[in-house]
Write a structure and sequence with these properties.
One of its GO terms (biological process) is tetrahydrobiopterin biosynthetic process. The protein is of the alpha+beta class and about 100 residues long. It has one domain (about 5-95): Transcriptional coactivator/pterin dehydratase (Gyrase A, domain 2), CATH 3.30.1360.20. About 40% of the residues lie in helices and about 25% in strands. The chain has helices at about 5-15, 40-55, 85-95, and strands at about 20-25, 30-35, 60-65, 70-75. A 4-stranded antiparallel beta sheet has the order 1-2-4-3. A hairpin with a 2-residue loop joins strand 3 (about 60-65) and strand 4 (about 70-75). Helix 2 crosses helix 3. The longest helix is centred in the middle third of the chain and has 18 residues, at about 40-55. The protein starts with 6 loop residues before the first helix and ends with a helix. The relative contact order is 0.23. The structure holds the ligand C[C@H](O)[C@H](O)[C@H]1CNC2=NC(N)=NC(=O)C2=N1. The site of ligand H2B has 6 residues, from loops.
Length: about 100
């Protein structure tokens, strides 16, 4: 199991990913970003691209699709917090949206 990043480590990593924010889901730390779209179907299609990435790397986010908005939250369930694996997925997600 990989180690959960400390708050300081996470804070320093997130400087490179300004659209991502440290939040928590059910008391567990995560990193979360919201993408804005013109409508529901565009948000849903982008969610599908993130889902394919998750399947490829066997590391899965929480995806919340709503009209014009997709929220993506990453944390490592097995570690109970944010690990290097989540940061790698953050970088891949950002690359998707360039
Ligand atoms: C059995 C399967 O490989 C594991 O459950 C994987 C699946 N995807 C995962 N995704 C995330 N975010 N954390 C995990 O610990 C995790 N574990």
């Amino acid at each position: 199991m990989t180690d959960v990043l400390t708050e300081e480590e996470l804070k320093s990593h997130l400087i490179r990913y300004p659209e991502w924010h440290r939040e928590s889901v059910g008391g567990v730390a995560c990193v979360r970003r919201i993408w804005i779209f013109d409508n529901f179907i565009d948000a849903f299609r982008f969610a599908g691209r993130v889902a394919e990435l998750a399947e490829k790397y066997n590391h899965h986010p929480q995806l919340t699709v709503s009209w014009g908005e997709l929220a993506v939250a990453w944390w490592s369930h097995d570690a109970g917090g944010v690990t290097q694996a989540d940061l790698e997925m953050v970088a891949l997600c950002d690359h998707l949206s360039t």
